[in-house]
């Protein structure tokens, strides 16, 4: 019995010793860091004689490459299809971390932060390539359209000429399922996280903005339409087309309905796809692609005609006036109303009879100034959201 206990004791010691590292100098394996989110501007394609930039902006939970990749394609469809259709266009894509929910940590950036970053990054790329005065076209999906509107308004009111150039050079915007009046899914998305069991972090700032009838979102829309109207009245050409989804998303239905995705007085067209797949064209024969392409070609042609080698002089040596497109860059006098500029909050003469004051981001709307969430004006807060919801992407985009 005594010998048995001695043997058992030795076995326990050997087990305890085996738990210790055998070689203290052995290297420790450290997991590689996760790749940073692919944000900022990426140049997809550059022709030798580019006369226009086309910039693609994805939506919530999207990706600057994957959100535009159709079924069966190894590259984004703009790279696969557009160079032969719009040969003078440089193709750009903009990425930003707009994941509203994460299993780790979600970005805390607000709409204004994404708009500011987009304005700064796009200006920097165009400046470095000596393309500051080049005409610019946007194709924006879902929430990306809201970011575009805010960035252009911010550019318009910026005192720095290089940042103001984005507004001055914008020639067309294709809104693809953009929730100009919000989306019901942001209201639905109040399901508690513990029910879904997947979410550890939520960006409430973005989801609050996207709720239906959100007054901050409405103020952006009114300020944007006022800006567009003033631009057109000045004689400058600024084209807008709104595309809406025809098909529902599985389990969720229609994400952005026609009323929210469009506005009166501007071109409207539908895409026979759901909210996510409406920007994932897999073929040049897709009717949705053809509809969007028709707008891009129409907007790009005037810029192509005004390039140095086009149009050709007639027999008298003169260039026919009818063939000339709009000027490459137009500087407008700032006629925005209200005591503060949209987004920037710069002081302006206030002809309005209604005024709300306070610190924070201001958006001019007809009849007064709207404060965004802080200051002495009204405050707007959305409902709590704790569920994994995607407006502008799908699991395949991540």
TrEMBL record:
<feature type="compositionally biased region" description="Basic residues">
    <location>
        <begin position="1"/>
        <end position="13"/>
    </location>
</feature>
<dbReference type="Pfam" id="PF17106">
    <property type="entry name" value="NACHT_sigma"/>
</dbReference>
<dbReference type="InterPro" id="IPR029058">
    <property type="entry name" value="AB_hydrolase_fold"/>
</dbReference>
<dbReference type="GO" id="GO:0016020">
    <property type="term" value="C:membrane"/>
</dbReference>
<feature type="compositionally biased region" description="Low complexity">
    <location>
        <begin position="370"/>
        <end position="387"/>
    </location>
</feature>
<dbReference type="GO" id="GO:0005739">
    <property type="term" value="C:mitochondrion"/>
</dbReference>
<keyword id="KW-0496">Mitochondrion</keyword>
<dbReference type="InterPro" id="IPR031353">
    <property type="entry name" value="NACHT_sigma"/>
</dbReference>
<feature type="compositionally biased region" description="Low complexity">
    <location>
        <begin position="352"/>
        <end position="363"/>
    </location>
</feature>
<protein>
    <recommendedName>
        <fullName>NACHT-NTPase sigma domain-containing protein</fullName>
    </recommendedName>
</protein>
<keyword id="KW-0472">Membrane</keyword>
<feature type="domain" description="NACHT-NTPase sigma">
    <location>
        <begin position="351"/>
        <end position="392"/>
    </location>
</feature>
<feature type="compositionally biased region" description="Basic and acidic residues">
    <location>
        <begin position="14"/>
        <end position="23"/>
    </location>
</feature>
<keyword id="KW-0256">Endoplasmic reticulum</keyword>
<feature type="compositionally biased region" description="Basic and acidic residues">
    <location>
        <begin position="339"/>
        <end position="349"/>
    </location>
</feature>
<dbReference type="InterPro" id="IPR052374">
    <property type="entry name" value="SERAC1"/>
</dbReference>
<feature type="region of interest" description="Disordered">
    <location>
        <begin position="300"/>
        <end position="398"/>
    </location>
</feature>
<dbReference type="GO" id="GO:0005783">
    <property type="term" value="C:endoplasmic reticulum"/>
</dbReference>
<feature type="region of interest" description="Disordered">
    <location>
        <begin position="1"/>
        <end position="33"/>
    </location>
</feature>
């Amino acid at each position: 019995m005594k010998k048995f206990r001695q043997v058992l004791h030795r076995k326990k010691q050997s087990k305890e010793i085996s738990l210790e590292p055998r070689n203290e100098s052995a290297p420790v394996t450290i997991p590689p860091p996760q790749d940073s989110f692919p944000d900022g501007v990426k140049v997809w394609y550059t022709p030798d004689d580019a006369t226009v930039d086309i910039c693609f902006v994805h939506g919530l939970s999207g990706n600057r490459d994957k959100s535009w990749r159709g079924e069966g394609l190894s590259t984004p469809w703009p790279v696969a299809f557009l160079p032969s259709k719009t040969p003078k266009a440089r193709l750009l894509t903009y990425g930003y971390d707009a994941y509203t929910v994460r299993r780790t940590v979600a970005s805390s950036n607000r709409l204004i932060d994404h708009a500011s970053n987009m304005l700064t990054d796009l200006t920097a790329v165009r400046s470095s390539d000596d393309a500051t005065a080049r005409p610019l076209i946007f194709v924006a999906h879902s929430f990306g359209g809201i970011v575009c509107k805010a960035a252009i308004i911010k550019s318009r009111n910026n005192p720095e000429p290089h940042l103001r150039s984005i507004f001055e050079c914008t020639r067309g915007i294709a809104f693809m399922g953009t929730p100009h009046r919000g989306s019901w899914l942001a209201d639905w998305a109040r399901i508690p996280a513990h029910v879904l069991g997947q979410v550890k972090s939520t960006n409430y700032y973005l989801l609050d903005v996207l709720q239906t009838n959100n007054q901050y979102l409405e103020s952006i829309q009114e300020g944007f339409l006022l800006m567009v109207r003033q631009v057109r009245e000045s004689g400058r050409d600024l084209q807008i087309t709104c595309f809406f989804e025809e098909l529902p998303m599985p389990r969720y239905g229609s994400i952005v309905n026609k009323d929210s995705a469009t506005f009166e007085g501007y071109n409207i067209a539908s895409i026979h796809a759901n909210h996510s797949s409406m920007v994932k064209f897999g073929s040049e024969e897709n009717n949705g692609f053809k509809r969007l392409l028709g707008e891009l070609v129409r907007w790009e042609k005037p810029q192509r005609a005004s390039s140095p080698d086009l149009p050709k002089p007639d027999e008298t040596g003169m260039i026919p006036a009818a063939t000339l497109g709009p000027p490459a860059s137009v500087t407008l006098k700032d006629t925005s109303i209200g005591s503060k500029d949209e987004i920037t909050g710069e002081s302006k003469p206030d002809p309005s009879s209604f005024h709300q004051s306070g610190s924070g981001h201001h958006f001019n709307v007809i009849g007064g100034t709207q404060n965004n969430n802080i200051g002495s004006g009204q405050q707007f807060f959305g409902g709590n959201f704790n569920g994994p919801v995607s407006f502008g992407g799908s699991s395949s985009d991540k």
